[in-house]
Amino acid sequence: MTGSKHLITLKKGLKILLDCGMYQGMGRETTALNLDFGFNPEEIDVMILSHAHIDHSGLVPRLSKLGYRGSIYCTPATRDLTEILLLDSAEIQEDDIKYVNKKNAREGKPYVEPLYKLEDAKRAVDQLVPVAYGEWFRIDEDVEVLFTDAGHIIGSACVHLKINEGGKTEHITFSGDIGRYGDPILKSPEEFPQADYIIMESTYGSSLHPDIKPADEELLRYIHETCVMKKGKLIIPAFSVGRTQEILYALNRAQLAGKLPTVDLFVDSPLSLEATQVTRMHPECFNRKVAKLLEVDEDVFSFPGLRYIKTVEESKMLNFRKEPCVIISASGMAEAGRVKHHIANNIEQWKNTILIVGYCEPQSLGGRLMRGATEVSIYGDKFQVKAEVGVIRALSAHGDYEDMSQWLACQNPRDVKRLFLVHGEYEVQTVFRDWLIKKGFQDIEIPTRHFEIGLG
Question: Matching SUPFAM superfamilies, A to Z (predicted)?
């Protein structure tokens, strides 16, 4: 599900890397997976980044650390988001490794290095080259690239390659992550040129999302029941990019409509603050409805009662707060960041609620809570799950199988020589493959990690 990386090697030896993502929420396997690229970074000639999410960009600094010195092409918004995400990730790597090395020192184990350091992330950011949507650009004498809007997060792109070899032209499309049609903030995914080969994500290939409007109503219901009725705290683990802005936009509209209860709401994530600022900088990615709202509301991600928490001290003070409130904090899978502390401090009180609003790897803390765990381990301590655990599935930046089918509707299935389903759980992929066969796609492959295949 995470750790997105795809390597295209031309017959003449040119190596093109699509994404360089970090594995997340994979339990004890996570570190080993992140250490093993499956290829030599020094041999990569050019890299293309579909979007800024860490599971697609998070190992770019390690790629640079291990010898990649070429350009990394992306959209302008992806460039801005990736900068803040990679710098934040580097700080997390360094902080986490300090804890590990303290423990290793006590147990007589050797010192270990972080995946990368802040200096590696800064060098990688300098390699980012922004290119706008809708413009074919050349990365090699034989290869042209086009970005089309994927509608997933600000700046997300589907990547289309036109490769000319031996007088023959092949078109390869990489979906990145496909967004939703009718997203409350972003434009819908764009149509794209006919492809010979498609590398396609399949996260929700067996699911249909509920309507987005009821999800907004569900969010308000949880705020009312937890904060107004039970006088408790509503803890919302939310990804800093995409999900946090979507929640803030929904609450902004509720406030304008007079539906938002009078309750203090905190965004406890410096990264979320930076990501929201970057989102504001790129209104070209907003849909018409948001553009219209901006004519009467200059900040669609803010409203009375909202406060951003910046310092660690302010974050800790929320644990001593007795009054009801809403706390939105990263990360979305509750695997890292300040939200783990908030969950630890509130999970054993019945009046509180932990509200999961996006996809969680099954082994992550968020995933275990979603599955109904009655006891969880956080930072090595055991906690009884006495707080209510809620789930809103409609708040997803990933398209469901109907969205993904609509994305493919611009393609003639008979002209697609092979379609590869990636970035999904195998059971889901098999269901989606059957669905696509009914749509007329004939050759559908579900590759394993480090799978290699010759095309053409």
Answer: Metallo-hydrolase/oxidoreductase
**Arch. (CATH architecture) of 6-207+397-445:** 4-Layer Sandwich (3.60)
In tens, the pLDDT along 117-176 reads 999 999 999 999 999 999 999 999 999 999 999 999 999 999 999 999 988 999 999 999
Q: Which residues contact 81 (CB under 8 A, 6 or more apart)?
A: 51, 52, 153, 154, 155, 241, 275, 278
pLDDT tens digits, 420-453: 999 999 999 999 999 999 999 999 999 999 999 9
What whole-number distance in Å separates Cα of residue 8 and Cα of residue 231? 55
Contact 444, 408 (CB under 8 A): no
Q: Report which of 240, 309, 315, 326 is spatially closest to residue 278, judged by C-alpha positions.
A: 240
Domain 212-391: assigned CATH number = 3.40.50.10890
Tokens at residue 342, please?
């908030």
Q: Residue 285 in contact with residue 75, Cβ under 8 Å?
A: no
* CB neighbour class for 332 (10 Å; exposed up to 12, middle 13-18, buried from 19): buried
